[in-house]
Amino acid sequence: MRISTKKSSVVELDMIFRNNIIYDNQAVKNAGVLINGVNVRGFSNNTITENSSELQGGGICILINAGASSELHGVNNIVYNNTTGGSNSDIECLDGKCLLTYSCSRTKINGTGNITKDPLFVNPDNGDFHLTKNSPCIDTGDPDSPKDPDSTRADMGALYFPQGSGIINKGFKTTGAIAIQVLQGNRFTLSVPAEGEYGLSLFTLDGQLLKSHTAYLFCGKNSIIWNISDCIQGVAILRIVSGTVKTEKTITILK
Amino acid sequence: MKIKIGRCCYSTVSVFVFLMISTSVMAQQQISGAQSGTLGPGSYTVVGNITVDAGKKLTVAPGTKFSHSGAYSWAISGQLSAVGEAGKKIEFIRSGTTQWGGIKFLQGSSNESILDYCVIDNCYSSQSGAGISVTGVPVTIRNSTISNCKTGGYGAGINAYNSSLTISNCIIESNNCPANGGSAINLDDCNKATVQYCTIRKNINSPT
């Protein structure tokens, strides 16, 4: 991902860059994200991990080849476990400014709320960058950020950890039934009434959390990629949360 | 009696196979050149460069497949609306071993183009932007996969210059910039861009 300019003046980029997962990219230089001569704001809740470069910029690199300044502003990012032959494998600021706060990296960067602890992903070797329940990135995002779909303080990273789960007898109030066929890369379809971020949680009938997922969905039918192939075939509860709206449906997982 | 039944069955099978082949041939229409109106659903073999001229709009129906038989590209000076559905994606792929030339949204388009539930796979361009190239126009890309594209310039998956670009819920993977950077997405002099809920993985860069 390269964001650059050829202009010699200050370039303020009106950019939203959020909830992206950037992993396992390789480069001679700048494997993850390169900010080159532009000021980028709105860089939030991204997970950037396991990218590898030979010379510089494993996770994020900030430099100025053109442009008058180069600044990266953002919150709630995980930039962890990237590798490089350069000075800092996760965030390398060669020119300009790295102004990330409430973010997680392996080497400490200046800024309020930044941490250097292992984010404890579920299964990074298989591309599952959900957080496990003991992750230091849970509820440690910017307190001024919008709350997660479960109404708790923002987590760091692209995929929030749903809380208040795992309690026996949750008193589900289901409003419909759908069947999910686990096919072709674990895709299934889901229709929603409005565009926005949705938190999806899958429970057993007695309330045990099986899996969780976050997705940005559009009004109408959506194709969702969510690996539920390891869940037991049969009936379960799918909780769909967006903002303050919560819907629970009985689903049948078919294989 | 058994022989007659056998011949009868054989004839029936022959007719059935003939009908199948006819249907298959009819479904694989060949297209090239200027396009407008609606294409699909169905399968097309692209046998030359495709254009959507200024002032024209091309709508592609869900479930349409474009198999490119050579290094042909799409040049959009008008408007392209390729909106698939979750179970009916619109595929832009190669038919043989030659990579095709990708979709290029050119400066001057009057309306915003959209790619939704599309597959863009196996493109090559010696210049920046192999899969999708955007110059000076607004484009929205949603719920799509851009993969296995290679460029001699920047931005093997998506390259945008001086544009307003929205990319949501996309997978951008296994693209390759052997000579430059931004293998997945390259944004040059774009003053407005949204990239959200995307997975960007297994792309390969060289020096920038």
How would you sum up this structure, described in words?
The complex is a heterodimer of chains A (255) and B (208). Chain A is built from no helices and 23 strands. In chain A, the strands form 7 sheets. A 5-stranded mixed beta sheet of chain A has the order 17-23-22-19-20, with no helix packed on it. A 4-stranded parallel beta sheet of chain A has the order 1-5-9-12, with no helix packed on it. The relative contact order of chain A is 0.12. Chain A has 255 residues and is an all-beta fold. Chain A is elongated and about 60 Å long. In chain A, 0% of the residues lie in helices and 47% in strands. Chain B has one helix at 2-27, and strands at 28-34, 37-39, 42-52, 57-60, 64-68, 73-76, 79-83, 90-94, 102-105, 113-116, 118-121, 124-125, 132-135, 138-142, 145-147, 150-151, 158-161, 164-168, 171-173, 176-177, 185-188, 192-196, 199-201, 204-205. In chain B, strands 1, 3, 5, 6, 8, 9, 11, 13, 15, 17, 19, 21 and 23 form a 13-stranded parallel beta sheet that branches. In chain B, strands 2-4-7-10-14-18-22 form a 7-stranded parallel beta sheet, with no helix packed on it. In chain B, strands 12-16 form a two-stranded parallel sheet. Chain B has one domain.
Keywords:
heterodimer, A: 255 residues, mainly beta, Immunoglobulin-like, five-stranded mixed β-sheet, 0% helix, elongated, B: 208 residues, 13-stranded parallel β-sheet, seven-stranded parallel β-sheet, 1 helix, 48% strand, globular
